[in-house]
Amino acid sequence: MANEQEHSVFFRTMMTGLFVGIIDTVICLAYNIFYRDFTGYVPSEFINVSSLIFGINLVLLIIGMIYYLFKRVARGGDAIFGVVFLAVTLFLAWKTEMIQRFADVHVNHEFRGLLLGIVLICGVSAACLPLFYNSRKFNEFAI
């Protein structure tokens, strides 16, 4: 019985990560369109529709599995997970500001703005995964 309950928790954490990933994909696609229209940023070798769809869903699915490990290993794993992923998000945002992808300063600045928005959207959602997991309404309608 305990093993079956453990599988249920693993499945719910993984599916929560996947569903949040789907929501984030839609938000990031909208942000991508808005940002490119607003700034006129054109290059799409790295950040494009395909990379957003597959990358974000895969990353949030894996983060859902990591959340399961936090729940299983640490007492108070929800709070620790949230704090850790907020710290990871701040670190990635800081590192994003240092990226030198293009020789043209203006295009490089626009690339960092696009990437920073995506990092912040996904990072905040990842840190909020425990809130979605513990939400009765979210589990009722989404999982």
Query: Topology as H/E string?
Result: HHHHHH
* Helix content class: over 70%
What is the makeup of the main sheet?
none
Rg on CA atoms, Å: 17 Å
Instruction: Give the beta-strand count.
Output: 0
Average pLDDT confidence is 94
What distance lies between the first and last C-alpha atoms, to the nearest angstrom? 21 Å
Structural class, by secondary structure, is: mainly alpha
Shape field: elongated
Number of helices: 6
Give the amount of beta strand, in percent: under 5%
* Low-confidence runs: none
Search tags:
mainly alpha
Question: What is the element layout, followed by pairings?
Answer:
Elements: H1 2-39, H2 49-73, H3 77-96, H4 105-127, H5 129-134, H6 136-141
Compact summary:
This protein is mainly α and about 140 residues long. About 85% of the residues lie in helices and about 0% in strands.
Overall description:
The chain has 143 residues and is mainly alpha-helical. It has 6 helices and no strands. It has helices spanning 2-39, 49-73, 77-96, 105-127, 129-134, 136-141. Helix 1 runs antiparallel to helix 2 (49-73), helix 1 (2-39) runs antiparallel to helix 4 (105-127) and helix 3 runs antiparallel to helix 4 (105-127). The longest helix is centred in the first third of the chain and has 38 residues, at 2-39. The protein is elongated. The model has no long low-confidence stretch (mean pLDDT 94).
